[in-house]
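@here heads up, posting the sequence + SMILES for the magnesium ion run so it's all in one place. Ping me if the SMILES looks off, I pulled it from an old spreadsheet.
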Amino acid sequence: MVAGARDEPARVPRRALPGGAVTFVFTDIEGSTRLVKALRDRYAQVLAGHRRLVRAAIAAHDGHEVDTQGDTFFAAFASARQAVLCALAVQRSLAGADWPGGAQVRVRIGVHTGQATPAGGGYTGLAVHRAARICAAAAGGQVLVSQPTRDLIEDEEEGPGLGFALIDGGEHRLKDLDRPVRLFQLAAAGLEPTPPRAGQLAAGGSAAGGVHGFPAVLTSFIGRAGPGREVAGLLERGRLVRVTGPGGSGKTRLAAEVARRVAGRFADGAWLVELAPVADPGQVAAVVAAALGVRDQPGVPIAGTLARVLARQQLLLVLDNCEHVLGAAAELCAGLLAACDDLRVLATSREPLAVDGEARYRLAPLALPDLEDLAHAATAEAVALFADRARAADAGFVLDGQTGPAVAALVARLDGMPLAIELAAARVEVLGVAGLLDRLEDRFALLAGGNRAPPPRHRSLAATVDWSYQLLAEGERTCMKGSRSPFGRATCRTWPATAC
Ligand SMILES: Nc1ncnc2c1ncn2[C@@H]1O[C@H](COP(=O)(O)OP(=O)(O)OP(=O)(O)O)[C@@H](O)[C@H]1O
Ligand SMILES: [Mg+2]
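bot reply: prediction finished. Complex structure tokens:
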């Protein structure tokens, strides 16, 4: 058992703090609020034991304790190597300690070297700030080391073998720092091979909130105020929300908009993973892990590594287009949600995942104009979308008394489906609105032109239907062959565009 509060030794007496190239070490207990809640009175004992171990390591490596606040240590070292060895000793001794109440005390550590001059019994300046930020980016049990520290250690040629390795994790942006920082993860015997926090080691990734993996927004988002509110509400109340609806009805776009809006509520942000290009269900977990910057650990199934990383995060995972890898996506969701308390999943899928607690939001088509009273037609979502995209395709397009009625009729014929409306609008320059309306008899051929650059399954309505068709079982395909209306008002009850 670690020492109790009363056994806590006094601080090591102060020696003169080093100047010049100083290596700073910050340590911080991960999830200390959770520990306080779980241990109550015994937390003081844990804190004192932790302080004793950290102080012993600092002293043994010729370090200087600059400041200690709560569960955070700030130490300075004249030698970069000693600083890293101290961090290693801290992790090893914490891992070997027997904590009261079976508590798990995991400490994140950041190490950084910079030019510094001691003043007033401490240090100020950018190097200290950087070291603190690097510590904040680390996971519990992990030591992250900056490039200047790593370079100094490599330059120190004399002395015994290092006994540790520094694994290059690439560059990333840390909060409040203007330039990206190259970080190295400490690896050594006795040190748990802690998987990095999601995205932490992904190039350019940020460990602090925000949205990740979302496509750049090139077109305006129209309407959907009600659905946006409802999906956000479902995400607040439940941990798995599925947006469903026919192909091209706007599931992905809505999910991305909602995720962008609520990302700030998640300390580790919102991450979007596109599953549409994943052909092999066996690759779903690996694709999600790769998108989150979680690296494979030898001998551990990737889903397990992912669960361990996400268990320490507060994150929104957006799984886009699950329908063709339904079983694998469902299994991954169920496993992750069971293992990770602060994880929420927003999925888009035409089919149910059938995971416990799954809340469904069925997305209706865009609001249509009232064809009997066109006074307010321009504000109907479907008309607004057509007008926006038509203006992009043809700078001369105007929605007025002449084009308005035809646009209203056109979007009604397209059942208010955003994909169909966009495809039609893309051809307005060539055909004009009246021409588009005339040619609607052959909807598939009409909507196959234009110069949009969407994913392959959205290049035309025929391609969208083909994607849906591929998702059907054999019997359902036979049924489809007898259907005359594969888009919109389906005549086949099992048509997946209406299944949910
Ligand atoms: N409310 C909206 N405002 C603007 N554009 C929209 C809106 N809803 C959908 N779109 C556009 O319509 C097209 C189809 O939408 P989306 O890709 O979200 O459909 P989907 O339901 O996810 O389709 P699939 O089932 O094939 O994945 C996209 O180009 C999208 O940007
Ligand atoms: Mg989609």
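MO: The chain has a mean pLDDT of 82.
MO: One more: The radius of gyration is 29 Å.
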